[in-house]
Amino acid sequence: MPIPMSPVLRAHGLRKSFQGAVALDGVSLTVKPGEAVAVCGPAGAGKSTLLRCLAGDLRPDRGRVLLADGRPVDGLDVVTRRRLRVVLRHDEIDPRRTGADNVALPLVRGGVRPDTARQAALALLGALGLSGLSGRWTWQLSEAEAQAVAIARALVVNPSVVFADEPTATMAPAAGHAVTELLVRATTRAGAALVLATRDAQAARWCRRIVDLHKGRIIEPTLPSFAALAG
Ligand SMILES: Nc1ncnc2c1ncn2[C@@H]1O[C@H](COP(=O)(O)OP(=O)(O)OP(=O)(O)O)[C@@H](O)[C@H]1O
User: Fold this and answer.
1) Model pLDDT for residues 102-128, shown as the tens digit of each residue
2) Separation in Å, CA 97 to CA 62, 114, 163, 216
3) Model confidence over 51-78: pLDDT tens digits?
4) Angstrom distance (rounded) from CA 109 to CA 159
5) What's domain 9-16+27-230's superfamily in CATH?
6) Ligand 1 midpoint to CA 166 (Å)
7) φ, ψ for residue 119 (rounded to 5)?
8) Where are the domains of the chain?
9) What are the CA-CA distances from residue 8 to residues 87, 126, 174 (Å)?
10) Where would one find the signal peptide in this protein (predicted)?
11) What is the DSSP string of 97-132?
């Protein structure tokens, strides 16, 4: 019998307003270990606000986000929070470094020896089928390639959860869908949960679970995920 796993995050009754305008209106959401969850909805639905509350970067007016051990996520110190979760940001890729050196950077900053960190980065890029990006200067990369490097860099520290807020918003649909597929495959392979905010209902379908957000509330999803269709 499988051992039931406690959720990585459990959010209950999240409410958040900005200058009287309601952004989140009572959102409850549980994220299980290794689960890919898409938060889908139109502009202004509250996706970014929800991700920031879940990541502990924004304090909700009401409701709580708890970790598996019951600690509130917004009460964690910065170091613990960084170890627990990463926020995917390709704009933080350093253009003066190669792909591998960018991926190695969080380990080096965490005190790992540079050559050990580089080996780990090369191994991860290889495992993700991205060896071709290892030696390339990142200023030369396309947006999709830079995002692929950012995905590897997010995962090199073995986070429990990766938060990605519209990571493909400015890409052409084909490139964006390829990056989303890589993001879901890579986080699943690493055993990390993924919370992906997107306006793109098709991209959301790469995730096992789709949560539709509308005017700060969760509504019934309109499209099933590919994984759910596959059974
Ligand atoms: N810092 C802020 N100050 C004021 N209003 C804000 C702030 N952040 C979000 N809002 C408002 O809260 C609502 C939800 O915004 P949010 O960015 O969470 O939506 P979203 O679904 O991520 O939208 P988008 O797809 O455009 O990024 C919007 O009406 C937005 O204008």
Assistant:
1) 999 999 998 999 999 999 999 999 999
2) 43, 13, 24, 40
3) 999 999 899 999 999 988 888 888 788 7
4) 15
5) P-loop containing nucleotide triphosphate hydrolases (3.40.50.300)
6) 13
7) -60, -45
8) 9-16+27-230
9) 15, 28, 31
10) none
11) SBHHHHHHHHHHHTT--HHHHHHHHHHHHHHTT-GG
Bridging pattern class, strands 85-87 and 62-67: unpaired
Are the C-beta atoms of residues 33 and 159 closer than 8 Å to each other?
Answer: no
Ligand 1 pocket: which of 25, 39, 48 to mutate (most atoms within 8 A of CB): 48
Is the C-beta atom of 44 inside 6 A of ligand 1? yes
| pLDDT band at residue 230 under the 50/70/90 scheme | low
Question: Which segments within 156-208 are labelled E, that is strand?
Answer: 161-165, 193-198
Q: What secondary structure letter does DSSP report for 6?
A: P
- Return the residue whose CA atom lies nearest to atom 5 of ligand 1: 18
Does residue 174 have its Cβ closer than 6 Å to ligand 1? no
Contact predicate 157/81, CB 8 Å: no
Query: How many angstroms separate the CA atoms of 75 and 202, rounded?
Result: 35
Q: Show Cβ contacts of residue 33 under 8 Å, excluding neighbours closer than 6 positions.
A: 5, 6, 7, 8, 160, 191, 193
**What tokens appear for 64 in the block?**
């709580």
Beta bridge partners of 204: none
C-alpha separations of 9 from 33, 41, 59, 133 in Å? 9, 21, 15, 33
Q: Is 20 in the pocket of ligand 1 (CB under 6 A)?
A: no
Instruction: Find out whether the beta carbon of 49 lies less than 6 Å from any atom of ligand 1.
Output: yes
Note whether ipTM > 0.90 here.
Answer: yes
